[in-house]
Amino acid sequence: MVTDEKPPKPIPKLKGIPFVGSTFDFARDPLGFLTGLQRQYDRLVQFKAVGRLITLTLTPEDAKHILQENNRNYVKSAAYDVLKMFLGNGLLNSEGDFWRRQRRLAQPAFHKQRLALLVDGMNRETTGLISQWKNRDLTGPTLVSEEMMHLALAVVTRSLFSSDVKNHLENVSESITIIIQTAYKELFNFFPFTRNWPTPRTVRYRRAVRKTEAIIYEIIESRRRQPAEIRHDDLLGMLMETRDEETGEQMTNQQLRDEVTTIFMAGHETTANALSWTFHLLATHPDITEKLREEINRVLGPDNLPTVETLRELTYTTQVIQETMRLYPPAWIFGRQPLHSDQFGDYRVEVPGADGMLICPYLLHRDPRYWENPETFDPEHFLPEQVKLRPTYAYLPFGGGPRLCIGNNFAMMEMQIVLTLLIRDFDFQPVDQKIVEPEPGITLRPKGGLRLRVQARPNTGLPVS
């Protein structure tokens, strides 16, 4: 039988080194390797890494196809096994019907009306840092990236547990740091069978997991023993209250543990890095900082704290945060595993054969096809008239489709509060002229940490305690 159907075009494929493909090039300089591919190819390109055939997508249309239009054909890639070591079967890692049920259960806790209850806690933690800085000798450089890590952990801890965990905060902070460091190392461990070997790092990691789990389970059990009329306006309380609309069931202790640890990691590491990059960019763009400060002073005045209502008026502040996450998206890359073959225009990704699909927001966010002056820090990229000109999936700081990050509103609210209060009260300046390089791992960190000169502004902001 004669058919007019065209055969699919072959997807461009890198040759690489026999047996290992492009493994070493990708591991040595992930951003440089992927950026080089973006310059050479328009839509799709394949390469071998760790014995797997990876397909890199380079357009918003294909990202939308994977994440939204045909999302049920894709599951999380094998790289998420590293996160599953600690996070368990929370929203970030779970799949299928179980994920859909967990999403239904967790969603009410992240509605904007419920999140409004957390604003006071975010203000308290941020003003606490302001008081510390105003009582500290800030003559030398401040390791802002570390300060943001501590602040983001304090915010997410208070948001999750109110004051229940206050006595454990130091232990939690130390344990979470060990867990994150281990996950970073394991991300580029090309011999996953070694993860269970009793190395010193593995022993420290397991001890940190046990310590964190013990604290979380202790808080959950303590809450369950309390009378029903006692309510907690925190995320754990909201998660414990919610019931499945179809079955009436609530989350088990194990499910609560997995969701809490996922929020811990996602709400701590990513937000801290986004804030660090924001202060770095503002320190090197004083004109944008002044425009930002003008809006903050106009909306909040010299000493008012942000509220849900005033946050909506901080439009330029929001644009600054959006632009930071364009240049330095904390979730800079994510992978999907195709379950069946799929069509991308004239190309066809074959299963079996293709082992994984990569979507890289870092590349999409800097693609000159969708962004004017893509390497320039310019919050006006997010003026409404500019946003309308771009494909929606050209900007993916929180992913997209049904698996859009459930905590995106929480993260934006926290970043707005921290940014407005610190910029109102402090000046940030570079320590030197060295270029701050991004370090790609699970998230996109400033390599070696971010140090800035921080100086209190005269006669502004909250009083020194």
Q: In short, what is this structure?
A:
The protein has 465 residues and is an alpha+beta fold. It has helices at 23-28, 30-40, 60-69, 80-87, 96-106, 112-115, 119-134, 144-161, 169-187, 200-225, 235-241, 253-283, 286-300, 308-313, 315-327, 361-364, 384-387, 408-425; strands spanning 44-49, 52-57, 74-76, 142-143, 334-338, 342-344, 347-349, 356-359, 426-430, 438-440, 444-446, 451-456.
How is the topology of this model organized?
Elements: H1 23-28, H2 30-40, E1 44-49, E2 52-57, H3 60-69, E3 74-76, H4 80-87, H5 96-106, H6 112-115, H7 119-134, E4 142-143, H8 144-161, H9 169-187, H10 200-225, H11 235-241, H12 253-283, H13 286-300, H14 308-313, H15 315-327, E5 334-338, E6 342-344, E7 347-349, E8 356-359, H16 361-364, H17 384-387, H18 408-425, E9 426-430, E10 438-440, E11 444-446, E12 451-456
Parallel strand pairs: 2-8
Antiparallel strand pairs: 1-2, 3-5, 4-12, 5-8, 6-7, 9-12, 10-11
Helix count equals 18
Instruction: Estimate percent helicity.
Output: 40-55%
Structural class given helices, strands, pairing?
A: alpha+beta
Silhouette:
globular
Q: Kindly state the number of beta strands.
A: 12
Largest beta-sheet characterization: 5 strands, mixed
**Low-confidence spans:** none
Structural Rg = 23 Å
Task: Based on the coordinates given, report the CATH architecture.
Answer: Orthogonal Bundle
Give the strand order of the largest sheet, numbering strands 1, 2, ... along the chain.
Answer: 1-2-8-5-3
Features:
Cytochrome p450, 12 strands, alpha+beta, three-stranded antiparallel β-sheet, about 475 residues
